[in-house]
Amino acid sequence: MQKQYKTKVSQKILEYIQENSERGFNASEIYAYLTKEEIQVNLATIYRNLDKLAENKLITKFKASSSDSVMYRYAGNRRCQEHLHMQCRVCGRIYHLEGDFMNEIAVYLRDKFGFELECEASSLGGICKDCISRSALN
Ligand SMILES: [Zn+2]
Ligand SMILES: [Zn+2]
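^ thats the input. predicted complex w/ zinc ion below
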């Protein structure tokens, strides 16, 4: 019984992150979602499941741009360790900076500063164009 219950929690978490693959989540948002779905679970269990999913490379663990909190996003088939991400601090949307320029940035930083960029641990903060136009309307 115990095992079945655990499987369901991690499946639900993965589904949720997958369906919202353009966003990042922290553990309490996932907790709120599971509670709404009437799945009884505590935060410690959620953290355990998130770590397991990250270990299996199904999701990526990263640090939020606007605060020090740890967030998670869907990894999918993307090679997220090879590019940087921008995260909107208003809506939480994530943009994958995929493209050749990513390699140019990494080479530039290496040549200029002798700096090895670790894409997985970094994300750029800012405001996306949707949120900018929304705030311009108000
Ligand atoms: Zn990515
Ligand atoms: Zn936004």
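Strands lie at 59-63, 70-74, 85-88, 94-96, 124-126.
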